[in-house]
Design goal:
278 residues; 15% strand; alpha/beta; TIM Barrel; 2 domains; single chain; DNA polymerase, domain 1
Length: 278
């Protein structure tokens, strides 16, 4: 069984529409697919319907970026109640902050002779979530830079002339919101964050899982996170972090997750009685 619980669609920063992502998963022989777009659930309905038509098991999810101290941690939320008021309020706040941030970035760009309109950025988002990657795409399309990398190096990166910090959420805030919405909070690609020392406190806050299997986790890392998951009785997940045709595009289903692990996740969802989702 081929399982991938971490993917992105055009609803956030992926290159494929939710339906196209499902179709690509079918082509690549995936049996179970999780959609975890950044800060939005807008692609879930389309993906769910497409998965139903293709008889692919679909796992609804979302990914949040959080910060604590000088660490950035990504929290995945699986099987949240998609109409939960507190979660929708949080997403609304994030959307508003993103919109305001775009205006501020555009204003800073203008001071260095780079002129974009908000519509230029929103167009790149394809009605999804927008942020610096979409600004970078607009800069490429309007000929100010040749590549997305150049856009960040010259204008958008930290300490560059058009950098604007984003609205910050803490891991605890997100874990609490996911739990309130009946979901399963999972720490994404922990080795990328490099703050294993924070995991015990996250567990105390309600963290329920670790993304053990990830392309940038070597065997030693996988073994370490499996041990942590066992110690704290956490769900084990894994995924490709697939974004589509974005330069580095791992195969869907890589690096792989055991069928027993997906069964454990589904059992965890049943324990939480997540709005009758199963």
């Amino acid at each position: 069984m081929k399982i991938d619980l971490h993917t992105h669609s055009r609803a956030s920063d992926g290159s494929l529409a939710p339906r196209e992502l499902i179709e690509e998963a079918i082509r690549q022989g995936v049996d179970v697919l999780g959609l975890t777009d950044h800060d939005t659930m807008s692609g879930l309905a389309e993906a769910r319907q497409a998965a139903k038509e293709h008889r692919l098991t679909f796992i609804p999810g979302i990914e949040f970026s959080t910060e604590t101290g000088n660490a950035e941690l990504h929290i995945l939320g699986y099987f949240v109640q998609e109409n939960h008021p507190a979660l929708l309020a949080l997403l609304g706040k994030l959307k508003t902050s993103r919109h305001e941030r775009i205006f501020r970035i555009i204003g800073k760009l203008a001071t260095v002779g780079v002129h974009l309109q908000p519509e230029d950025v929103i167009e790149e988002a394809k009605d999804g979530v927008y942020g610096r990657p979409q600004v970078a795409l607009a800069l490429v399309r309007h000929g100010y830079v040749q590549t997305i990398e150049e856009a960040f190096e010259r204008y958008l990166g930290n300490r560059r002339p058009a950098y604007v910090s984003h609205f910050k959420l803490t891991p605890r805030q997100v874990i609490e919101r996911v739990l309130e919405a009946g979901g399963i909070p999972v720490l994404a690609h922990p080795a990328i964050s490099g703050r294993d020392d924070l995991i015990p406190s996250l567990v105390k806050s309600g963290l329920a899982g670790l993304e053990v299997y990830y392309l940038e986790h070597d065997r030693a890392m996988v073994a370490r996170y499996l041990q942590m998951a066992k110690k704290w009785e956490l769900v084990v997940t894994g995924g490709s972090d697939f974004h589509g045709n974005t330069g580095k595009a791992p195969s869907l289903g890589a690096p792989g997750l055991a069928e027993a692990d997906i069964r454990t996740l589904l059992e965890k969802v049943r324990e939480t009685d997540s709005a009758g989702l199963l």
